Model the fold of this input.
Amino acid sequence: MRINKEMLGKRILYKLHRLFIREGIIEEISPNGEYVKINSEWYSIFDIDVLDVLESKTKLVSPNEKYKIGKNKEKKTKLI
Done:
């Protein structure tokens, strides 16, 4: 099975170079679709063979939501 954009953020069981079976989370796909970031490492999409899509364990935050974090913090006042 090939990696597609619907798998983003999903935990997968995959083969790397047809030798090693690993488990990881798809974190990012390159804009041209030729590379995929799994567990903080980049791989060519042609070297990865997805064996199974497991349940999603993480919720990836979109770039727009990253800037919203911390805006609603309460202001702390210094007591004298």
The mean pLDDT is 77. The helical segments are 63-66. DSSP finds one helix and five strands in the chain. The first strand starts at residue 11 and ends at 16.
